């Protein structure tokens, strides 16, 4: 998955999504991995805007649809990742896409 670059010197919490396709769907066995500095025990995970798992691991396989993010003291919240449970999705690579790039779309179900 693609993680956006942060400004020089800034420390931020990032979420790595595997497999690196958007949207993420449950039937792909989506793994979310927290990246950033700090100790693993300080990670707080949120699901659908509510505190979901405090002191959780740095990564896990998603088993429920929802919108996930994590927080680390001193580095803040990650971007949100929405995981769907749809039967059919039109997908694109999660990497950054610029005008003029060739983009592969996949219809998956």
From TrEMBL:
Sorted alphabetically, which keywords does the UniProt record give?
Disulfide bond, Signal
**InterPro entries (alphabetical):** Ig_Fc_receptor (IPR050488)
| One GO term (biological process) | immune response
Q: Name one GO cellular component term.
A: external side of plasma membrane
Q: What is this protein called?
A: FCGR2 protein
Look up keyword Disulfide bond and say if it applies: yes
Q: Which GO terms describe its molecular function?
A: transmembrane signaling receptor activity
